[in-house]
Each structure stands twice: as structure tokens, then as C-alpha cells.
Amino acid sequence: MNPIDKLIKALSKFPGVGSKSAARIAYHIMRDKTENVSDLVNAIANVKKKIKLCSECFNLTEDDPCYICSNPRRNNKSVCIVEDPQDASAIESTGTFKGVYHILHGAISPLDGVGPENIKVKELVQRLEKNAIKELIVATNPTIEGEATAHYITKIARPYKIRLSRIAFGIPFGGDIEYTDKSTLSRALESRLEIKE
After folding, report:
1. What is the pLDDT of residue 12?
2. Nearest Cα residue to 75 out of 96, 105, 47, 49
3. Residue 181 has what pLDDT?
4. Antiparallel, parallel or unpaired: β 75-82 and 135-138
5. How many domains does the chain have?
6. 56 is a domain residue
7. What is the pTM of this model?
8. Which of 52, 53, 54, 87 is the most exposed place for a label (fewest CB within 10 A)?
9. pLDDT in tens, 148-188
């Protein structure tokens, strides 16, 4: 296999990049200036080398704890639970939420062999036990897996006698928080509902 075909094959492994998009990107890289390609290679290498998980919220960060967890102006008694770092980033971009996050790094999906032990649920329980958290906002995606995860989190958090809420949905069922516009996300956070038994 020649180098261009290898590059196309490698690029097509990324989510949302089909073989045609991968070919366009590969040929663009070939036509682009050498310094732009070098910048891309260095940026990818730096991300892989320097970025790690925050030891408190499990967001992607260069510094530990991350800039959100270490910010004294954030309300660390209010924790928003999301599936992935890009979901936290999407919520953060609204400027609405002033608490901190807990990134699960996935959702419960028995059909895919993903249980609570495969995501950051145990770490959430540890946070509940050691911190005086007053509210959990469950902001998992409105999918079957996201709903199963929300239900499981509600069940394990209920004994801690804290406020539990689920973001309201202007987000379509089956959609991803990551791709939702800022105003819809803001409304969903502001009109979140308490989870009742």
C-alpha cells in the first residue's frame, strides 16, 4: 500500500470521516505548505503527550486539577454529570453553568458490554462520599444508553440525600449534547427538573 493510501486509511478511522472525506483531507495535506503539515503533526503529538485526565472531574487537561476544578469562583457543591469531555465543553460554552463537572467517559450500554464498572461511576461515588456535594445535575445524552446511565446514577445517588436533577430536553431524543446549539443547551440547563422517585 502506498503512503497516500495508508494516510487515507488512517484518516478514515476517525469518527465522522468516511473514505471520501479522508481522501480529500489526505490530498489537501499533500498540497498544503510543509510548515502547516508540521504544525498539525506537532499539535497531534503535543495533545497525546501533554493532555491527561483531571484527577477530580476526569476532564481532559494539561494541568491537574483542571482550570474548572481549581477555580475558586466555581460552585464545587453543584456537579454536572456528562458522558464525554466534549459534552462538558458544549455546556461550558453556554456560560450558564457555574458549578463543576464529572465526566463519565461513556454511558452504560449492556449490548456493547459497557457496564457501570467501565465508566467513571465508582469515582462519582467516591466524590459523593468525600465531598459535601449538594446537587447532581444529570446531563447524559437523550439516548437509550444515556437514559440507562441517568437512571443508574439516580439510584446510587439517592441515599446521599442531595438534590438530583436532569437537564430538560429541548435536545431531540437520539441527539448528542456535543452537537446542540448554545441557546438550546442554556434553556435545558436552566429548566432542569428534579428527579423524583
Report:
1. 94
2. 96
3. 80
4. parallel
5. 2
6. no
7. 0.79
8. 52
9. 999 999 999 999 999 999 987 766 667 788 888 887 787 67
